[in-house]
Design a protein that fits this description.
By secondary structure, the chain is α+β, with helices and mostly antiparallel strands. It has seven helices and 16 strands. The strands form four sheets. The protein has a seven-stranded mixed β-sheet with strand order 4-3-11-12-13-10-14, covered by helices on one side. A three-stranded antiparallel β-sheet has the order 1-5-2. A three-stranded antiparallel β-sheet has the order 6-7-8. Strand 12 (165-174) and strand 13 (179-185) form a beta hairpin.
């Protein structure tokens, strides 16, 4: 995904986490007219492209080094405090000692809960934070040849048109040694495969011969939930519905 430049400094991220520094953006119209964006960027300005599996692993390991207790588990629910200063009791499946893929049911008493458990947040459901409208995003990571990859060295592409999305945009974003080709929509989630084929077709000259190495799909919030904090529970990121409206970027939050 894409991260804003401010995130690198605020979270003290090492430069090696950033796969690509995008300094050129090509906006492509329904008739394939191209507009180049980025000429006003300063030499040290860019949009950082990262792989979530790499970034998330780094953040998790760093939290452990700073003193956090890491648990490989699946949050199942929680019991709210019965008194003003009472504890929240979290129920989770501990997967650290899983047998046949099944974890061990355990509980944990805590004073504060931060729900960073994504768009389908169980923490949000427990505090009745309310729902939000969302877009479905779908992308295929493709490995293309070196010559084509050179074109995307510092470039990302955004496509618009009813063939790639009726209400969102489609994209080709550079990653470490491949590109991510995808699209999204709010109003026609069932048609996402049709729009994915549309971006494949539109970008075909630049991704021809590409090998699909990974397929990903996830919801993107369209607006915050009605409630993001209740007592000593707060939601962040997709769980809260925080996202940059124009781009759908939400890692920063």
């Amino acid at each position: 995904g894409a991260i804003p430049l401010c995130m690198v400094g605020e979270f003290d991220l090492p430069q090696e986490l950033i796969d690509r520094r995008v300094r050129k953006m090509t906006m492509i119209s329904p008739t394939n007219k191209e507009v180049q964006i980025g000429s006003t960027l300063a030499d040290d300005e860019y949009i950082g492209m990262v792989r979530r599996e790499v970034l998330d692993s780094y953040m998790r390991d760093r939290a452990g080094e700073k003193g956090a207790t890491l648990i490989n588990g699946l949050f199942m629910g929680m019991t709210l405090p019965q008194t003003k200063n009472g504890s929240y009791v979290l129920t989770y499946n501990d997967l650290g000692d899983a047998v046949s893929g099944k974890g061990t049911k355990k509980t944990l008493e805590v004073d504060v809960v931060i729900g960073a458990d994504g768009a389908n947040s169980r923490v949000a459901k427990e505090i009745e934070a309310g729902d939000y409208e969302y877009a479905i995003a779908f992308q295929e990571r493709m490995r293309i040849d070196d010559e084509k990859m050179e074109y995307y060295k510092e470039r990302a592409e955004m496509y618009v048109g009813d063939d790639v999305s009726p209400d969102f945009y489609a994209w080709v974003f550079p990653k470490y040694d491949h590109v991510a080709v995808g699209t999204g929509t709010v109003v026609d989630k069932k048609g996402i495969q049709k729009y994915q084929q549309g971006i494949r077709d539109r970008a075909e000259p630049r991704i021809r011969g590409g090998e699909i190495i990974r397929v990903e799909a996830h919801p993107i919030p369209e607006h915050p939930r009605p409630w993001r904090t209740k007592d000593r529970v707060t939601l962040v990121g997709d769980a809260a519905g925080y996202v940059t409206k124009c781009s759908g970027e939400g890692i920063y939050f």
